[in-house]
Amino acid sequence: MLLTFLNVQSKYKMIFTKTSKYAIKIIHLMAKSGGILLPASLICQELDIPYKYITHILLVLKKKGLIESVKGKKGGYRLKFQADQIYLNQVLEIFENLEEMNRCLFNINSECNGNSPCPLHKYWGKINSHLNEMIYNVKISDLIK
């Protein structure tokens, strides 16, 4: 569901950055692994993401407390919490300003808001409302069902 959404929306270059999409895919892979330590090289291979990019994202996710790492020959990365304890917004807000999502996507008016809406405001408002609902209510565990 969400991964399909991420792939579809990437064709239209809207809303989420490439880094956020990769972070969700990394967290999704870790959730599917069931706590097994995943080396960065395996994550890179499985997701077809450049190694330097993977290691940067992993470092940020670790610093923010969503994943943990174990050093050594048999080391790797895994989720710090169960997948049903992590919400999508917790991953996205590390790399995105989620408040920016509420701004007018079309910029027809310089200041589009509820008091001074652009002609597309009512349509974007509905889409944005559904998107926010998904981001704040979907758990990582929902992505692996």
Notes on the structure:
The chain is mainly alpha-helical. It has a domain at 2-96 and 139-144: Winged helix-like DNA-binding domain superfamily/Winged helix DNA-binding domain (Arc Repressor Mutant, subunit A, Orthogonal Bundle). Helices cover 50% and strands 6% of the residues. A two-stranded antiparallel sheet has the order 1-2. Helix 2 packs across helix 4 (51-63) and helix 3 packs across helix 4 (51-63). The relative contact order is 0.16. Residues 8-13 have low confidence and may be disordered.
Provide the CATH top-level class of the domain at 2-96 and 139-144. Mainly Alpha
Determine the CATH superfamily of the domain at 2-96 and 139-144.
Answer: Winged helix-like DNA-binding domain superfamily/Winged helix DNA-binding domain
Using the alpha-carbon principal axes, give the shape: elongated
Radius of gyration: 17 Å
Task: Please give the order of strands in the largest beta sheet.
Answer: 1-2
Name the structural class: mainly alpha
Output mean pLDDT: 86
Record field, number of beta strands: 2
Spans with pLDDT under 50 lasting ≥5 residues? 8-13
C-alpha termini separation: 10 Å
- At CATH level 3, the topology of the domain at 2-96 and 139-144 is Arc Repressor Mutant, subunit A
Number of helices: 6
Quaternary = single chain
* Main sheet overview: 2 strands, antiparallel
Q: In the CATH hierarchy, what is the architecture of the domain at 2-96 and 139-144 at level 2?
A: Orthogonal Bundle
N-to-C SSE series?
HHHHEEHH
Helix content: 40-55%
Q: Roughly what fraction of the amino acids lie in strands?
A: 5-15%
